[in-house]
Every structure is written in C-alpha cells, then in structure tokens.
What does this fold into?
Amino acid sequence: MFSWGENIRDGFGLVKSNGLVKANTDSCLNVILTKSPIAHLSAGNKVVAFIRSNGKVSFACRMHEYKDGRRVTWKLKGVECREKILALSCGDTHVVLLSEEGRVFCLTSASNDPRPVGNLNQVIQVACGDQHSIALTQDGKVFTWGQNSRGQLGLGKGEPSTSSPQPVKSLSGIPLAQITAGGDHSFALTLSGAVFGWGKNSAGQLGLGDTIDRPAPAPVDCLNLKKTIAISCGVEHTVVLTKGGLVFTFGSGRYGQLGHNSLRNELRPRLVAELWGAKVTQIACGRNHTLAFVGSFKKIYSFGHGELGQLGNGVKMDQSVPLPVQLPQDHIDDLQIEQTFAGGNHSFALCSSAKESGKGLNDSRVEKMTQTLDNDIIDRWILQCDSTSWEKIQKEITETFSSASCLNGSFLDKSCDKHYQTSLKHSGLDLSSARMAFQKLAEKDKVLAEVKNVVHRILLPSLSKDPIGVEGLRVYLIIPELLRVLLKQQRGIDITEAFVATVLRLNPDKLQIHEVICVLLYQLNSRLIPTEGLWSTLSDSFFRTVVKAFHSLSAEYLQQMAVKRCDHGKSLKKTFGLLQRLYDVNSKRRRRITVDTFHVNKISSLFQSKLILDLNSELTELVWDISGEDDTYWIESEMILSKIKRYKDNIFCLLKDYPCILDTEAKCTVWMYAFDQIKDCHEDIEYGWLSDKSVKVDRETLLDDTFQQLRKMTCHMVALKVKFQAENGVDEGGVSLEFFSLLGRELLTMEPKTLEVYESGLAWLTTDDGGVTDEFYLLGLLCGKALFNQCVLNLCFPLALFKKLLGLTTTLDDLKELSPTEASCLQYVLDEDEEVVEALDLVFMDKGQELTPNGEELPVTMVNRKKYVDLYVDMKLNKSVQSQFADFENGFHKGCPIQTWRMFLPEELMTLLQGDDNYEWDKLRENAKYQGYRPTDDIIQNFWSVFTEFSEEQKKKFLTFLTGTDRLPRGRSLSKLQMQITSLGSTDADEYYPKAQTCSVTLCLPNYSSIDTLQEKLLHAITHCDVFGDA
It folds into this structure.
C-alpha cells in the first residue's frame, strides 16, 4: 500500500519501522508492507480505519496536535467485532462499519467496541460526512442519522438532528448504485446515472447552480445523460466520474481542488479539461484535495490542498491543475494499483502483484447496488418452486416485488448504454424483457399468484405519491405487463383497480406520463402531468398494453353493473380518468394507436343496468289506488323516478368528462341526454310565457329578419322555433331544418361580407371586416343555435374552424384543405434544397404583413424555413382573423349553451354542424314503414322503382322535400331514418301531388294510376315545392 500526506512517518502504526519503506522520490510517499494485506480503508479528518483481508478492523486516531498545527501522533487500535466487516466509512471522528450480515455498527475514538446502529439490516453500503452517516439497504431504502444543521440528512425542512437512522422518503423507489457524503452534504447516484444531492451548498458543492442549502434530495439536472458512474465528496467540493472517463468537479475551489487552474468556486459541474482524453477510472476526495486514477497509464493525478504532502508531488503546496503523483518506479513496475482512497489530509493506493491483479479487493467488498430481478432468478423460481425451496423463494419474491427500487432498476435497456439516456422522453427500460419475464412467471401459477399477492398487498400501497425522478416512475410501466398476463387469465381485476388508485394518487406535478408518463401517465390530473413523458414514448405494443389494462377493468365494471344491482360509478371515474389521460398522451405521440382502442363498447349498458331495470320493475309493480284516497303510489313512484334520474344524471356527468371512451354514436347519445336535461330545466320557459316567441321570418327577407330577431333575443337556453310568414307549418323540427338549410346559402352571399369562399369550395372568415358590426357574432350565434337545435347549417367550413373552437392548434395540413395551391407552395419551400430556397428570394412577409418583427429584412433560408411556414400558417388561420373569430366564438358559445359539444373531435363536430353526406340510399327503403299501403302494393313498388332511377341530385332533392335538408344531422343518418309512406286516401289521386310532413318524416303519397304519373308528380313536388304546408 502506498501512503502519502499526514502522518507518513509512522504508517499509522500498521507496521513496525522495518515494514515502512520510504519511497526513493521527492514525494514524501511511504510504501507500507503489511503482513496481513489491507483490503479496504477509509480516512476522515481525525480518524483512519482499515479492513484487513481476514475481515478484521483496526483504526488509527489522531491523539495530539502541536500548537503550530502540526499533527504528529496517531494511535492504532484493534476493533473487537464478532461479525466479519466488509466495508467501512470514516467521518470527522467516527467510523461506521458494515458487516457481512448487512448490519451496521459505529465506532468512536473513545472506544474500540462497536455499537449497533438502530435496527438496520440488509445494508449494502455506508457513507459518512463529518458529523452524519448514510446507509443503503438491499431493497433500495436510504437511511441517515447524525447532525442535520445544514439539511445533510435529507429528511426535509425543519427536521432535527437524530442519533437513530431515519428513512429518506423522497428517495423511495429510486434504484441506487451509490451513496456518498462530504463535510455537510450528501449524494445518491442511480443505476442509470442520475444524481441527487442535499445538504450544505454554501460553495455550490451540490452542483445546482446556486448556494442555497437543500434539506431534501434535489436532482442535479445538468449531469443528466452524462453516464455518471461514481461520485466522491470533499468537505466542500464534489467530483463526478463518467463511464467515458471524464471528470467533472464543482463546489469550493479555494485550494485548487477542482483542477481548473483557478481558485474560483464552481456552482455547476465543470469538466476538468486537463484530464480530457486520459480516461480516468477512479476518483477520490480528501478534505480539500482530489485524486484521479488513470488505470491504463498506472498514473494517479492529484490537485488541491498540499500543505501536508497529500498531493504526493514532493512539494508541500497547493496545486490547481492535475499533475501525476510521484509513485516509486522501482515498486510500481511490479504492482497493479487496485484502488485509490483519500480522506482528511491523507492519500492511499492499495496495490497487488501483477499476477494477482484484480484480486486485491474481494468481490464481496465491491460496493453492492440495489438488488434487481433478472432471468436467472426467475428461472430458479420456476424450476424450484415445487421443491423444499418454496419457502425461501416466497421470501425472495416478497423482497423483490415489495421493493419499487428493485423493479425500477430491473429490465434496463443496456444495449449501447441506452438506460443512461433516461429522461422524461425515454424510460431506459427494455420492456420486451419485462414482458418475457412476466410471461415466464405465468408458467407456474403458484409463482405468479405469489407475485400478484405481494404487488397488490405490499408494493402498490407503499409507492410514493411524490417521486423525485424519472427512474422512480418506471414501476408504472412495468406493472402493466404483470396486469397483462393476469387479465389474460381472468384474474387481474382487483389488482388493476388498486393500480389505478395508485396512479391517481400521484402528485400531478410529478406525474408528467406527458412530459414525464411525457415517466408516465400524461399528467394524471387536469393540469396535465408533465403527462409528455414516458408513456408517450412507449412502443405501440407496450402503450396498447397499458391502455388495455384500464380498458379491461372499465369493461368489467360495466359488465357487473349490467348483471348485478351495483353502482361502480366512483370506480369507473378512476378508470375512465386514466383512459382519458392516456388518450391525451396518445395525442402527443409520434406514432399513435387508433382512437377506437380507447372506446368502451358497453357504454349503453350504463343506461340499461340491473339497477335501472330493477327500479323500473318496482315502478310497474306499484298498485294505484283508484279511489285516490291513498297517496302511497305517487310518493313511491316519485321516489323511484327520482332515483332513476339521479343515477342517469350521474352517469351523464361521468361520461361527458371522459369523451375518449365514447365512439361517435355514444357521444351523440350523451349529447342528446344533455339536450334533454336543458329542455327539462327550462320546460316552463319553452312551453310557458315564451311559447309564442317563435322566430317569424319571411322567405324573401330571411337573413335580415333572422338577424333582427336574434339581436332582440335575450334567452338562448331554449331550442329555436321557426315560423315562416303566410305558411301553416308548425315547427316540430322539420321547419327548423329547412330554415337553417336556407340560411346556409344566404350567409355566403350576405352583405357586408363575412365569409370568403376559397378555391377548395370551403368558406373562411374574411380578413376584410370593413362595414361589419356584429355580423361575425351573429354568424357564430346561428352556427351555435343550429348545433343546439340539432339542425344542419351547411356552410362547408374547413376542419380548421372546428379545431379552433376546440382550442387545438392549426397546421399546414389545415391550410392544405382550405387553400391547396397556397399550401403546396409552402410545402415546396420545405421540400426543396438550399439553392432553390434561396433562389425564391422569400422574406418573412405575407401580403404586406410582417410575419415577425423586421420580417421584411429577414430572408427565408434552409435554417428558418420551418419557422417561416409555421408563421405563415398562423397568420393565415389565426392572426389575420383574430378579432373576427373572437366574435364568432363568442356568438357560438351563446347559441349553444350546452358545453358538452367540447367532447367531440373536430371531425365529429364538423359533421354535427354540417351534416352527414354519407348517403346510404338503400337503407331508406329497408327502414321504411307503411300506413294504408303494404310493401307489395303496386304503388309502393312503383315508387321505389322511380326513386331508384333518380339521379344523385334528384335523390338529394327528395331528401330535402322529405326532411327539410339534404344533409342529415349526425345521429339521424339514412341508416337510422325511418320514413313512413302513407296513403292520402283521395279518389282522384292523379290530380294531387305528394306531400311531406317533415317533422315526422312522412311522405303522403296518392295512389297513382300509373308509374309515369307517379314519376311526373313526384319530380314536380321535389323540384318546385319550397313552401311548408304540412310540416
């Protein structure tokens, strides 16, 4: 062993004088030749401790110090410990020991009898600062004890010092590779290279960019993706080593211990440039000096405080750049340096002969990391679960699956070190291996059952609601793979429900499944977790697994409600909520799974549940007292009806908040229910004092009459009723359909102009609003009222309008739909090479308007062309019509007071307003009913023959004649339209034309004498009849 620094003269009492060899250099370095080799050591400010190869411990304490500050006397003491010691760490004056059994003991200079520290067991690492200590257990828990004056225990703000170990709860679930401590600060390093620091930060030793102490672990974000593999701490400085051999330092630079040729403090990790290319393999920190070992060169570099010779350079002075320690060449040629140590004002290098290289440290003494699950363990469980080893296996399963740290550190993607890239957008997991692992566990039912039991009973309740790092969220990606195999066996409902509750318990600020699970669940709260995180980056297969887990649970609840008298409303709210959040995550993914994956197909059963059926049965079984003397019937029936309504209202509220689970038809059902609710609430208004307040209009002055009456209208909570002047039609829906159909044509030609028709045939808000007062507001009001009245207002708006109403971002694809030529020019700018783009001589302008400040002077280049296109689209679809759309949107909200329309997708909302143009003409005949006729009558056969021969345009005219519009609202498509053909009953049938009752979709058809007469009369009716008679 090489030793240099304080007390080099007596070798700490480890050997007699003949075993202490003064190196033949100017470095003041000793070669200590012990009979029993030193396997491990640690040094503090006033104590140095050694572990010999047989596990025995001895430690040296500084016994005396002269007034001039020179420390001269050290006394070596043997330690009486019944357990073999594997590792130790020194503080300022105390030593913490770790035994082979995983127990922890503490030594002080006053005694050589180690005392147990609390009830710690299964400890795998220990570390000491000056006055505090840290322990890491096999299952990933971190415990601290000692002084907490600067927050070095990491227990949170205001926590006192303590002599008994306390758990650092904020590190719960984080798979750790190393713990370490300096003077009054501490660090933890994860398996994937994330670094957390806490405690004193007066010199920037936490690397957080400031000098504010941290009472709890804080992530050192600037070390992310650096592949950190080791950390060492001095009293006020910190050194970090990466897998690539780079060294970063930060904190106090007072003595040059940061190695930057400067005495300046560094508040953030800074690369030690002088060690660039050297590929450092080990680092160690003394109190104010640093060692860096380059294994390939057999060189140890030192820098920092050197007053006591701790730099090994022969000159007892400080050094601010790394220089080699002057190791004795006559010894180093025959030895391999196994490990370097530093502490206090001491430096050491443990060596072995070249033949025994790699054996200087027993494998058991190499720092152990949090345990993880691997294929070898699973194979052993599967093979031995039926033997006498089952009890031991059960214990191992409990230890493994009760620990979030263990699972979060398992199944890492180690190909090309990908797990070191862990971030909000990359989980660092190889989920394929996780899937295979759980599939293998499923081969033995008793093993899988035990895993399920431990996860359900212990792991899920223990998960932190406030994890501090992405690695702590991996468990939320792994557990769905367990749920997947359990649900396949029809036995995962209870644990899936528990998992849902656990996810919903997460702090929404941490649950960034958009920016974090965007590692998980798309911010699992309405503020959306940084939910662009891990779930958003899963492959299709694994993301679909997560979705299906919650989907299956929702379907199971619905099934139970259909066959049992139970109300799973609260549980469904949780599962629907998670599906909605995952749906939002999906919308952020580059490759999205289809939206129908989220649809729960048994939604209709909510309105026909066992509870509803039983209540209806109770209602029919009530006996009505004909005498009227007993009010029991009315009281009980009212109670039952109230229960039914309350249940349906709750279901409606549940569904409208989670539209992702609904297909379009289900959304329409919820939409209709919302309309009925509004209608019931305002029934007295609609049928009472406002019953005669229909909108009365003249066909010749339709638009002006409409605008005039809308301006006077104050209540928009009732459906619009329309009355055409001099016509007898009563509006039961059909008159309104025609009213809005006619308005759609007139709005396109109105003055002042509000809409402009583009080359695509689509209408967009005009940018020239000269002369316009409230017309944009009225346009929006009419569109909203059309939607509220469930009528069609076919203005052929582009999808962009509906995206804007829903608060979604418009893109170049939206401009392509509206103005294909304009958009193709922009696409050309994006696609062409640099020479072509520059030759176009474009600047950031559009029709005299600057797209950005000084846009007239800013040329479009390869670098900024994407920004140019984005700004152009934004100008065209947003900024140029900003005030016009604001008025339109205000009117739309007034016209349609039911905000339930927000649950529709833009495409669905567009179809609701503009109607369905999917004409399934054959369905019209299939669904037709007859009154006064039979399907086999000649007149009916002739009618369908004539209708079949109609052109597409003539069929649309017939549809307008029958219903009032040629585009039917969503939910009233031809596949659902039930036309009734009834006989007029006239004796002179050939003298009459067909009539239509639009509200009831009834065709009154005379019994014509021939097919030719029928064709003539029907064509005349659908071509020339624009006035409602029987509506």
Observations:
- The two ends are 105 Å apart (CA to CA).
